[in-house]
Amino acid sequence: MKLQELDMVRVTAQLPEDRVDPAFGDASTPRIGDLAAIVDAYPVPTGQEPVFMVECVSPEGVVRWLADVYQSELELVSSAHRMMPDGRRPAPPRGST
Questions:
Q1: 92 lies in a domain?
Q2: Domain count, the chain
Q3: Which domain of life is it from (predicted)?
């Protein structure tokens, strides 16, 4: 599975606090099952696991948390780059906005 910037993802593992940016968000701790968006993909040295900057936003539009997350800790929910056969982008999953 290749994840990319703007993909909607679900957190599948507990994230260490040292990878959560305390300068952003409402002090929420990332939880397994949280829906979030990839906002940046860091350069990956050959043979290493991809790491992404991932942002979780509340339904009210408030940033809950921003964290560096390994690909193995994420599950793709919806790709911002996938197109439907008629050229439209699919709607985001319910509960993700």
A1: no
A2: 1
A3: Bacteria
CA distances from 72 to 49, 52, 80, 85, 89 (A): 8, 11, 19, 29, 25
State both tokens at 70: 């390994």
Locate 85 and state its tokens. 């056969």
Backbone phi, then psi, for 82, in 5-degree steps? -80, 135
Domain that holds residue 19: 8-78
Q: Please give the C-alpha separations between residue 23 and each of 26, 28, 37, 52, in angstroms, as whole numbers.
A: 9, 12, 18, 17
89 in any annotated domain: no
Is residue 18 situated within a structural domain? yes
User: For 55-86, what is each residue's pLDDT tens digit?
Assistant: 999 888 889 999 999 999 999 999 876 655 55
Report yes or no on 23 lying in a domain. Answer: yes
Residue 11 and residue 85: Cα distance in Å, rounded?
29
What is the reported pTM?
0.79
Q: In the β-sheet with 35-41, what is the strand arrangement from edge to edge?
A: 63-70, 51-57, 35-41, 8-11, 74-78
